[in-house]
Specification:
Blueprint: H1 3-9, H2 15-36, H3 44-58, H4 61-88, H5 106-111, H6 114-129, H7 135-152, H8 175-205
Helix pairs in contact: 2-3, 3-4, 4-6, 4-7, 4-8, 7-8
């Protein structure tokens, strides 16, 4: 067996998955750019497409943990809302109404199904690569950088709900107060609890019979 074959066999992320996700990102990005514009790539879920591709190629527990703490809850809620709309005709939570908007090309809406793929893919990646407990801190830093940009750049789009929940600007409190509360509460209420859950889950997976345990990079 050659050195290349040994290295290929030792990959914890299959080559076909790396190539498939990379091809997906290359195909997806131009359609989203044309439909929504450059600012749309500042959505955490859209940024996640790129970071996950890097994480899969690098087999990086830190990158997949970073993305999981930021995306797992919201993408799971997205999936629940979309499934509820398809089954009952009602949006249980909200946020996926655009998926039935005939004004958006069907192909673009179908491309949005990556939201449904993200939760199982991220959980699988953590199971395969391990969980890095610093990921939630990196996601918090990302939020502190990205959301103020969203607040200032084309605020009418309310990217990442920087101006108010569910793409509606709130007027309950002054905008800067809302932004400050967002930057404090989302890491505390979403990222840290998700970190605790993922750390617990990784510990359960990291049994003596589990081949791949948590690692860092």
């Amino acid at each position: 067996m050659t050195a290349g074959q040994i290295q290929w066999r030792s990959m914890r992320v299959p080559l076909w998955l790396r190539l498939l996700w990379t091809a997906w990102v290359i195909a997806w990005a131009p359609f989203y750019l044309r439909q929504y514009g450059l600012q749309n790539f500042l959505f955490f879920c859209d940024l996640g497409n790129f970071f996950i591709a890097v994480g899969l190629w690098m087999e990086s527990p830190l990158i997949v943990s970073w993305q999981a703490t930021g995306l797992l809850l919201f993408q799971s809620l997205y999936t629940i809302d979309l499934a509820g709309a398809l089954i009952t005709g009602r949006h249980i939570i909200g946020g996926t109404e655009y998926m039935v908007d005939p004004g958006i090309p069907l192909l673009v809406r179908l491309l949005s199904l990556f939201h449904v793929v993200m939760p199982p893919l991220l959980l699988w990646a953590i199971w395969r690569l391990g969980y890095n407990p610093h990921g939630w801190k990196l996601q918090t830093l990302t939020t502190w950088i990205v959301v103020p940009i969203n607040y200032c750049w084309r605020p009418e789009l309310d990217i990442n709900w920087a101006r108010g929940p569910f793409f509606r600007e709130q007027h309950v409190v002054p905008g800067p107060i809302y932004l400050l509360a967002y930057l404090i509460l989302v890491p505390a209420v979403v990222y840290f609890p998700t970190h605790v859950f993922l750390a617990w889950l990784a510990h359960k997976w990291n049994s003596p019979n589990q081949r791949f345990g948590p690692e860092s990079c």
